[in-house]
């Protein structure tokens, strides 16, 4: 001690240790640093199974930048992906478009098998044939299509141009192109396209074999929007869209075959004898990996199938599954599987654990199977139950090579199906492959095959909807970056390194939920309820009733909600799947990120600021425009901040206006809002006058404005604001969408969740709401309850309340807002900001359109193409799942 004393470590009688080069053993072993996986999963006296939410990874030492985190990992023995993400073989998740984009982003898609073998092989072929920037299956017209039919297709598909070929199909001889300009002045709907198309002799075309750069150059010089590619016989082989070019920069991460440079693609098959033929067609189409798809993979049928596949198609890797135990894994590895899929009954749409009482908590399943399979060099894919980037990180840290996702991806543009609206929320359908709906659509045979009581359908999944996430091209980079941050925080530079640390006991994990607290208590390690990372307590539940879901724009694409089981198909003793099951996702936007691309103008928001909105009045998707983005959210100005174009927060407007506030305050608020509206008006005027985006030389030939209002108090502002803007801009009415929610209705709705399911809820059309709108623009309300004064808004607490200062801390938004804000608020916004989502490589659709009440013409909404960093942070809400009780998921 005398040494410490002399060195000054001993002060006021307080004995202090000198810092050594290592943390002392005693502290290390106390649990203060968390626990090893071994301790949690193996020395597990309470025999408890762990879900992702039960665990949290302890931070490590960061010795590298986040960009250096290497997330590449193996899917199978032979396939390595730069990005360890796999899309589920489900009919609401993966068809060619999803598979193409997944592969371009460095992951892989597994084409579902709820279609004929031929169709599935075609889907694989589309992925294999994919050429960046080339639309290989454009919608074509035949010469005798009428104008009326063209307009209908345009409205349905939101394409602006169609090639005309002699056969009306791809591969036919090119005879012209229809664009918006061609049809603009024709009145008679019975006129044939040949009368008004731009005919072949005046078309600029490219020859088959043209490179993307060359095509780009031709488009630039010709100032055309579309470039048809023809072969020597003048037959159409591809179409190149100018608007797609920018999006189609080569992706260095893309998952490609090393031999032929084609994108990697997977496909699922079942275990029936027929599936051998299916596998043959898939192999012929060039599939790289076949997933043998069963909920319980350890069966003689699957073992036989794997053996067959390995013998018949040695060039194709085989993923067996699903399994959740080492002994199941053993059988499939022995049969020759190159990879395993792990997860049973934990998918968001699963009811397997309820219906069949068999399954396993996913973190436990991943840990145990990965650890066993590793001995044989077999990677595993953690399938199902991924709800956030955090779950991905956890899965990887627990030994998974890749993660497979369904619900996370089902709401993206690339997933099959059309968007539709419910309560103002833009949704896509998502359903379990074992749901009644999916079975009716083709999966039925899987369940009834070879069973004595083949008339009994036992659903093992449910259907519902997921909210719009926009395009994968932005979503995947966001997920990737989230995972990189997670690994960095844990001090792990790569997936491989995480593996080492998992097995050498240097990865620290801690349990987090009350149930796992029992486990810790049993281990004698924990004396108080843990509070770190309590994900479960952060969930909000968003009931969206399953029936009553409005139709998507393409009613044929999917059936109209789950069909009730026929009486004689029902067995009373089998629990029916819950009628309600859906999950929604809220985004917390990160205003700190430099998310606003230069031409955007942001006025107002705020906590959940929408990313730049872009509404184009340009009907020609080929027209060059630089969108100007203006969003005014009068409703939130009262708690708002003003964000400059580069994303810096300029002012914060902290004073609240509520009807219960003094009239003086209210007036002040109104004038502040009026100022913002004035500013917006100036911008509109400036843009219109100069034809340029504010502070930019970019041409800007469009503009529309979105005004959202949530409260009675703001009604006038919304109304007056929209009026002013309209006057200033002479915009047509339909370019102003006003959503005016009335507080009392919101309160009612929020207090009776069921009401949300009613399709016509309470829609309050603001001034300038299109009087006639297509499905998809009818925003309905679904909004926060009446506000009581939140501490944040009380002047006294203003100074020290951090959330008040930065105005955007979701986590601190509990209290009166707790339920309402993240869900309803961001819902409204999400609606709007995702409206502009448009087509993909294949030049497809923007499902949202407004028809002008004046001329009945569709008014397409464009999307800006300026790259910007992902700005959303996913948060899941999970509703209606019995396993939320935490009982059924905890079989270990
Ligand atoms: N991961 C999960 O937890 C779950 C996934 N699902 C998904 O639902 C879909 C259907 O899954 P399953 O019901 O497992 O389909 P499956 O086709 O593997 O099994 C259905 C029934 O048919 C039987 N069967 C299969 N091949 C057979 C053969 N050759 N001879 C005799 N009987 C045979 C099975 O034993 C089972 O009873 C899959 O897409 C699966 O991924 C369904 C439930 C849970
Ligand atoms: O119990 C189930 N009943 C079903 O009908 C069903 N359909 C799919 N799956 C599995 O769930 C996975 C996707 O799960 P997530 O939506 O959580 O990503 C998928 O990858 C599948 O493993 C089902 N499980
Ligand atoms: K979908």
UniProtKB/TrEMBL annotation:
EC top class, as a word: oxidoreductase
Family statement drawn from the similarity comment of this UniProt entry: Belongs to the IMPDH/GMPR family.
Cofactor: K(+)
Binding positions for K(+) per the UniProt entry: 345, 347, 350
Active site: 350, 446
Tree of life domain: Eukaryota
Keywords assigned: CBS domain, Cytoplasm, GMP biosynthesis, Metal-binding, NAD, Oxidoreductase, Potassium, Purine biosynthesis
Record-linked Pfam families: CBS, IMPDH
UniProt cross-references to PROSITE patterns, sorted A to Z: CBS, IMP_DH_GMP_RED
Catalytic activity line of the entry: IMP + NAD(+) + H2O = XMP + NADH + H(+)
Pathway the protein acts in: Purine metabolism; XMP biosynthesis via de novo pathway; XMP from IMP: step 1/1
Record field: compositional bias (Basic and acidic residues): 11-20, 666-676, 790-817
Annotated region described as Disordered, given as residue ranges: 1-20, 543-575, 656-676, 746-819, 843-892
Record-linked SMART domains: CBS, IMPDH
Annotated ranges, domain CBS: 134-193, 197-255
Any GO MF annotation of the entry: metal ion binding
Protein name: Inosine-5'-monophosphate dehydrogenase
Enzyme Commission no: 1.1.1.205
Subunit structure as annotated in this protein's UniProt entry: Homotetramer.
Binding site for NAD(+): 293-295, 343-345
InterPro entries: CBS_dom, IMP_DH, IMP_DH/GMP_Rdtase_CS, IMP_DH_GMPRt
GO biological process, one term: GTP biosynthetic process
Compartments in which it is found: Cytoplasm
Function recorded in the entry: Catalyzes the conversion of inosine 5'-phosphate (IMP) to xanthosine 5'-phosphate (XMP), the first committed and rate-limiting step in the de novo synthesis of guanine nucleotides, and therefore plays an important role in the regulation of cell growth.
């Amino acid at each position: 001690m005398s040494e410490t004393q002399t060195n000054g470590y001993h002060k006021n009688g307080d004995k202090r240790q000198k810092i050594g080069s290592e943390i002392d053993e005693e502290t290390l072993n106390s649990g203060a640093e968390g626990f090893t996986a071994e301790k949690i999963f193996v020395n597990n006296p309470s025999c408890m199974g762990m879900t992702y939410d039960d665990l949290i990874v302890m931070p490590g030492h960061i010795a590298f930048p986040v960009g250096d985190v290497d997330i590449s990992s193996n899917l199978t023995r032979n396939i390595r992906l730069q990005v360890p993400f796999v899309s589920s073989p489900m009919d609401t998740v993966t068809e060619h478009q999803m598979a193409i984009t997944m592969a371009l982003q460095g992951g892989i898609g597994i084409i579902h098998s709820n279609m004929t073998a031929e169709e599935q092989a075609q889907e694989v072929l589309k992925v294999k044939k994919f050429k960046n920037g080339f639309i290989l299956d454009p919608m074509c017209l035949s010469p005798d299509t009428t104008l009326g039919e063209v307009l209908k297709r345009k409205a349905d598909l939101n394409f602006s141009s169609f090639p005309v070929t002699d056969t009306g199909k791809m591969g036919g001889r090119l005879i012209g192109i229809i664009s918006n300009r061609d049809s603009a002045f024709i009145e008679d709907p019975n006129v044939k396209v040949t009368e008004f198309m731009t005919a072949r002799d005046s078309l600029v075309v490219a020859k088959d074999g043209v490179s993307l750069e060359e095509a780009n150059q031709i488009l630039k010089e010709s100032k055309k929007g579309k470039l048809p590619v023809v072969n020597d016989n003048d037959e159409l082989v591809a179409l190149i869209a100018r608007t797609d070019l920018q999006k189609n920069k080569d992706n260095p991460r893309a998952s490609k075959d090393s031999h032929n440079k084609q994108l990697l693609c997977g496909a699922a098959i079942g275990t029936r004898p027929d599936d051998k033929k299916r596998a043959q067609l898939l192999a012929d189409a060039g599939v790289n990996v076949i997933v043998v798809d069963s909920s319980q993979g350890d069966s003689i049928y699957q073992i036989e199938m794997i053996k067959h596949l390995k013998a018949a198609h040695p060039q194709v890797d085989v993923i067996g599954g699903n399994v959740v135990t080492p002994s199941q894994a053993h059988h499939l590895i022995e049969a020759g599987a190159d990879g395993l899929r792990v997860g049973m009954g934990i998918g968001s749409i699963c009811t397997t654990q309820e219906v069949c009482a068999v399954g396993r908590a996913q973190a436990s399943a991943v840990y145990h199977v990965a650890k066993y399979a590793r001995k044989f060099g077999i990677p595993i894919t953690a399938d199902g139950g991924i709800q956030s980037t955090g779950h991905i990180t956890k899965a990887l840290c627990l030994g998974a090579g890749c993660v497979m996702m369904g619900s996370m991806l089902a709401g993206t543009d690339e997933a099959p199906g059309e968007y539709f609206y419910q309560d103002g929320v833009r949704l896509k359908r998502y359903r379990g492959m074992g749901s009644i709906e999916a079975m009716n659509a083709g999966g039925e045979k899987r369940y009834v095959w070879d069973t004595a009581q083949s008339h009994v359908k036992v659903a093992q999944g449910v259907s519902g909807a997921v909210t719009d996430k926009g395009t994968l091209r932005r979503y995947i980079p966001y997920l990737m970056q989230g995972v990189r941050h997670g690994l960095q925080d844990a001090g792990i530079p790569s997936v491989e390194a995480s593996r080492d640390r998992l097995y050498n006991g240097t990865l620290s994990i801690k349990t987090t939920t009350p149930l796992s607290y029992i486990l810790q208590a049993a281990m004698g390690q924990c004396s108080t309820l843990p509070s770190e990372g309590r994900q479960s307590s952060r969930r909000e539940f968003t009931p969206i009733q399953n029936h009553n879901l409005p139709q998507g724009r393409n009613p044929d694409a999917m059936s109209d909600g789950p069909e009730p089981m026929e009486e004689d198909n029902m067995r009373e003793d089998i629990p029916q799947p819950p009628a309600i099951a859906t999950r929604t996702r809220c985004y917390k936007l990160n205003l700190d990120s430099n998310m606003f691309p230069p031409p955007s103008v942001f006025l107002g928001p705020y906590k959940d600021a929408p990313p730049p909105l872009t509404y184009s009045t340009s009907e020609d998707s080929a027209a060059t425009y630089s969108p100007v983005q203006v969003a005014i959210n009068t409703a939130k100005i009262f708690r708002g901040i003003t964000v400059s174009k580069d994303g810096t927060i300029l002012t914060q407007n902290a004073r609240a206006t509520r009807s219960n506030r003094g009239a003086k305050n209210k007036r002040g608020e109104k004038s502040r809002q009026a100022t913002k509206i004035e500013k917006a008006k100036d911008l509109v005027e400036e843009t219109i006058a100069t034809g340029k985006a504010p502070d930019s030389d970019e041409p800007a030939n469009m503009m529309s404005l979105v005004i959202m209002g949530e409260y009675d108090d703001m009604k006038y502002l919304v109304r007056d604001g929209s009026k002013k803007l309209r006057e200033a801009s002479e915009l047509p009415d339909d370019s102003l969408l006003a959503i005016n929610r009335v507080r009392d209705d919101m309160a009612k709705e929020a207090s009776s969740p069921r009401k949300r399911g009613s399709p016509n809820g309470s829609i309050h059309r603001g001034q300038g709401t299109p009087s006639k709108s297509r499905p998809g623009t009818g925003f309905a309300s679904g909004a926060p309850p009446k506000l009581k004064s939140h501490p944040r808004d009380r002047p006294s607490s203003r100074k020290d309340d951090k959330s008040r200062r930065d105005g955007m801390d979701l986590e601190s938004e509990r209290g009166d807002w707790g339920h309402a804000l993240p869900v309803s608020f961001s819902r409204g916004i999400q609606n709007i900001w995702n409206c502009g989502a448009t087509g993909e490589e294949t030049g497809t659709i923007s499902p949202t359109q407004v028809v002008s009440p004046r001329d009945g013409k569709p008014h397409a909404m464009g999307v800006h193409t300026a790259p910007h960093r992902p700005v959303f942070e996913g948060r899941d809400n999970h509703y209606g799942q019995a396993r939320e009780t935490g009982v059924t998921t905890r079989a270990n």
